[in-house]
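Proteins fold reproducibly. Consider a sample protein:
=====
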Amino acid sequence: MHAVVATVVSAVAAKDKPVDQDTNIVAGWTAFWIFLLLIVAVAVIGFALTRSLRTAARAKDAGVYGDAPAADDPESPKAE
């Protein structure tokens, strides 16, 4: 509750304060391009992770990690 009151009081107090345009700093085009590059980086990492997990799943089904291969496992739905 204290945080809500402090936020409201500071908002009311800042309402009458004039904004100096010389010190009003905004993000520019450089920040926009960096943001877009970060989005692309996350997409590439997600794509690589998906491919890696699929490869690991195929290797596990083939018995590479010491498990019985999926085709030999009678409980596996792929064996039918």
Observations:
- The radius of gyration is 28 Å.
- Residues 35 and 41 are 10 Å apart (CA to CA).
- DSSP finds two helices and no strands in the chain.
- The helical segments are 2-15, 29-62.
